[in-house]
Amino acid sequence: MIIRKYGRVLLCLVLSMFVAATIMSCATTQQVKVLEDQVQQALQDAQDAKALAQDCAQKVDSAAQRAENAADQAEKAADDAAASAQKAEDMANKTEAIFNKAMQK
């Protein structure tokens, strides 16, 4: 009889502690709201960072295209300069040949 009496008291005490622990571990509405706001802010920051990364990627692509165009123009200019140098050398050779012919006479 004593065991049953104390058993019930012990069982009620254990259940009360379980209920108290469950209630104490639950977050309040305000805590949930604060956490939700933090999550929303983090999500917004992540979206802003993604947009910034996409913008940077577009700028990098644009800069790479401009650099490629500039390299093509530099190569064309180098080819033109080489052609001009060759033409100048040919003219110098012709001038030297004319001068040598004039000196022989």
Structural overview:
This protein is mainly alpha-helical. It has one domain. The chain is about 95% helix and about 0% strand. It is built from two helices and no strands. The chain has helices at about 1-25, 30-105. The protein is rod-shaped and about 150 Å long.
Give descriptors for this structure:
mainly alpha, 2 helices, 0% strand, 105 residues
Please give the alpha-carbon distance between the first and last residues.
Answer: 149 Å
Number of alpha- plus pi-helical segments: 2
Low-confidence stretches: none
Question: What structural class do you assign from the helix and strand content?
Answer: mainly alpha
Count of domain modules: 1
How large a portion of the residues is in β-strands, by DSSP E?
under 5%
Please report the total strand number as a whole number. Answer: 0
Helix content: over 70%
Radius of gyration: 44 Å
Mean pLDDT: 88
Give the topology string: H per helix, E per strand.
Answer: HH
Shape, please? rod-shaped
Report the major sheet.
Answer: none
List the helices and strands and how they pair.
Layout: H1 2-25, H2 29-104
Summarize the structure.
By secondary structure, the chain is mainly alpha-helical. The chain contains two helices and no strands.
